Amino acid sequence: MKKVGLSLMTAILGGAIAVGAYKMVEVKNTDASTFEDRQKVYFASNHIAPLVSSAGTVDFTQAAAAVTPAVVYIRTTYSSQQSGGGQDQMEQMFGDMFGMRRRQPSGPQRASGSGVIISTDGYIVTNNHVVEKADKIEITTNDHRQFSAKVIGTDPNTDLALIKINATNLPIVKFGNSDDAKVGEWVLAVGNPFNLTSTVTAGIVSAKGRSVGIIGRGDNDDDENPFSSPNLDRSQAQTPVLNRGIESFIQTDAVINPGNSGGALVNTRGELIGINSAILSHTGSYEGYGFAIPINLAKKVLNDIEKFGKVKRGYVGVQFRELTPDAAQDLGVKQTNGLYVNELVQGGGAQQAGIKKGDIITKVDGNTVYESSDLQEKVGRLQPGDKVNLTVLRDGSEKTFAVTLKADNGSMLANNSKLNSADAIFNNLGAHFAPLNSGQKQKYNIESGVVVTQVSPGHMFDQLGIEEGSVITRINKIPVNSPEALNKAISNTKDGILIIGGISPDGSVFTNRYKMDK
Q1: Residue tagged active-site, from 229, 261, 285, 372
Q2: What percent of the chain has pLDDT over 70?
Q3: In whole angstroms, what is the distance from residue 309 CA to residue 312 CA?
């Protein structure tokens, strides 16, 4: 009897300890402030040890098994009036076979994509372009359960969206550290291409910090779209003053096809390092160039959306031009990498810190800046009020300034209080421009030109039908290869007639005449 009593007491005591521990974990999970904190509690409480990388034997079975259950299929429905029902050549050819979005004479249109479960209580990350303007969002989990999802919030500037389903005890993908990803490292892409549930493909990290000009184009296509129009390098545009896209993609040659949008890019330990977003393709299908949003950038966006309903973004307050050998020659500087400061926002963080027009930003928090994505992704992870150390090259020597990010990027440039006639004419165009990069010059077999990165409704370019993505090669027979050169050509207009020559996004050549009132 004593033995029985002792066993009973031991069982009761053990059960009490287990329940108490569960309650402690439950409280911790409730109090966790970010998705990453909740994940740490989950993996710790369930004693889930990190997976050991098997890349040495090219065996990805553990990583695939860990990730696949938490990648979902997303099906969206749009009313026939929505603009989200576009159709490309791939959809025309394979729409009926693979269930991709198809154009119908009337009735609802449908699209599909992927998503990644990041919280056991039903939060899912996907691409903004997968769910944008959708009337209905349906989720199918890997174990074939179906749920209706609601949009918690979206961020078009990073092409991310946070959605939620009413479910508990869901499997999740563990966050990794995208900063630690190395070029040449093995990665897996997990998603639902062509409506094929849970497909895993392998490849390597081909590059990091890529800016391909896809975010902010205004496209609302389903899944990955071929970049058949000029590959806009918006990072070279004078756009950091504006609320534009933040691009610092992880490039991979893991097979990504239509339907992979919003899916997981993971390392061989099964850790999420990116959200698959786009492909570079002339056919609309796999050609070896896929792009994923780094998870370190995504975490900040997703936490903001859950906590505030929107992203709280801090701004440096500069307008810059990315330096290349051609840009350096045009600006008359010797430095061929970094960001040349064209203008400063009046009262912005950069101006208040002491940065001046003509400075060249060479480092951010001690890390070398080669292109705009090196700065934009870093700033994109921060909040208004946070500080970032910018090192600039000025008069042959480097100086470091602590810049406090502002919540409002401002609309007035520091030296714009008195606009001269050339500036006034330039503004009348109703467009913003970026220099052509080498790839664009090679594609169109041209030596000079600027890309139209934004067109304002009702202004000259809009009236002439000149679209975003068009290339302006000449103004009044004068070749232009930078916004500054374009401005100079306009200022030399004497009779008020502008003859604008260029190339449309579809590759056709155009010449437009416009009578300006001076």
Answers
A1: 261
A2: 73
A3: 9
Q: Given pLDDT bands bounded at 50, 70 and 90, which one contains residue 95? A: very low
Which residues are CB-contacts of 372 (< 8 A; sequence separation ≥ 6)?
211, 235, 236, 240, 320, 322, 339
Report DSSP letters for 405-461, one per residue: PBS---S-BTT-SS--HHHHHHHHT-EEEEE--HHHHHHHT-S--EEEEEE-TTSHH
Which tokens in the block code for residue 69? 């259950």
Q: Which residues pair with 291 in a beta bridge?
A: 251, 278
Handedness of CA 250, 255, 260, 266 (dihedral sign): negative
Report, in this order, helix, strand and coil percent for the chain, each rounded to 5. Answer: 25, 30, 45
Distance CA 442, CA 464 (A): 26
pTM (2 d.p.): 0.65
Each residue's pLDDT tens digit, 441-459: 777 788 778 888 777 665 6
Please check whether residue 171 is in contact with residue 310, taking contact to mean a CB–CB distance below 8 angstroms.
no
**144 φ, ψ (degrees, to nearest 5):** 70, 20
Radius of gyration of the chain from its Cα atoms, rounded to whole angstroms: 26
Structure tokens at 267: 């390392």
Q: Is 459 known to be catalytic? A: no
Q: Mark whether 432 is an active-site residue.
A: no
469 is written with which tokens?
């993505």
CA distances from 414 to 236, 290, 321, 346, 490 (A): 20, 39, 16, 4, 23
Hey, which residues does 360 pair with through a beta bridge?
A: 340, 393
Annotated active-site residue 281? The verdict is no
Vertex 512: Cα angle to 506 and 518 (nearest 5) = 140
Over residues 178-185, the mean pLDDT reads 93
Give Dmax over CA atoms of the chain in angstroms. 112
> Got the DSSP string for 252-265?
E-S---TT-TT-EE
- 161: part of which helix (H) or strand (E)? strand 160-164
- At what angle are helices 35-45 and 295-308 packed, to 10 degrees? 110
Could you say which of 88, 159, 233, 374 is catalytic? 159
The answer to whether the beta carbons of residues 279 and 257 sit under 8 Å apart is yes
**Among residues 129, 178, 211, 482, which one is catalytic?**
129
Span 371-417, pLDDT tens digits? 888 898 889 889 889 999 999 999 889 999 999 998 866 644 454 44
CA distance 28 to 4: 36
CA atoms within 13 A on the CB side of 261: 31
Nearest to 74 by CA among 256, 260, 204, 248: 260
Q: Tens digits of per-residue pLDDT, 217-268?
A: 443 333 333 332 222 222 222 233 333 578 889 999 998 888 889 999 999 9
How far is residue 236's CA from residue 488's CA, in Å, rounded to a whole number? 19
pLDDT tens digits for range 45-72: 888 887 776 556 667 899 999 999 999 9
